[in-house]
Amino acid sequence: MPQQNLDRSKLRADAIKQSAIADMKQHSDKLIHGFESADETYSRRAIWELVQNARDLSDHCNITICLNDNSFSFTHNGKPFTSNTLLSLIKQVSSKSDDKLNEEILEDEVEEVGQYGTGFITTHAFGKQFSIKGSLKVADDTYIALEDFEIDRKAPTSTKLAEKLLAQQNAVFDLLEKNGDFTSESTDTTFTYKFDEKSDRENAVEAFKSYTEHYLPLVMALNGHIKSITIINKIENYKRVYRKGENIIENGITATPIIIDDKPPQNIFSLQDKETEMIIILPLAERSKTRKWDEDMGRLFLYFPLVGTEAWGSNFIIHCGRFSPTNARDGLHLISSNSQTKEKEESNREIMGIASTMIFPI
Fold it and tell me: How many secondary structure helices (H) and strands (E) does the chain include?
């Protein structure tokens, strides 16, 4: 005999929940695949993913990076979250700034490299649990404070992770409906990753060292919107502030001054061509004094280093906004038998030819 006393509203609610979990599973599958594909480059790429997102969200970007014994945090002054960008982050789907959707990028704007897409998975090298402190914009001059909003991606299976993603999505809906207080103030955004495993801490320490010792001045020189980066290392008890000065052009060479803790500026010298979006960083310590880049530095950049180009065989560092990198961002499409990448390969070879002519003019 059928049971006549079943709660039909509960049956409906259960069916809705199971359907929502099934819909969310495509996102959890992608995350699980990303975690399983993690390699040694993830920790070196992770900081660039965070810097890239911050740079995409501000035309006057100030960043603070802090390394603690038990956590790693990243703060920027860019645009606050919207419900769309926060939900996109939870589901790990690419999202550009809302006011740039369906708009052409103006000539003097910096093209968005990406935001919360697949590359963001690399930041889980610092831990699969992180919290967000900042603001959620809900209307003009109206925000809801994000107080340690938690993203938890620790799960043994894709289905369990889908359940967590659904709960985090519902937490956003609750925040909009009943849990968040309105304010007229927008605050900086901070991501804090909690070290749950020994490798999380090791990855953060390695990335921190690589970032500060090698690349930071170069990244600031190549990204016009980044104005300052503050580095705080509480493990080794030091703090450094990097600020960028105005470019000085002399005899066709651009000097970008990077001021570290109010010391005399460290100049990054480059050849620049706006038409081709080409910047070649020259191996110069001063205008009349050469230098050699460290062997473990990438030689090709797409605003940020393409990890894997350290052995490119040149003492020049080449950046171009039109490069077509491999999916792993560890090099360029240049020569292969893959017809799908043929057009990208031809474009990259043409760009490298332009770079050669800039370095060694005929």
Answer: 7, 18
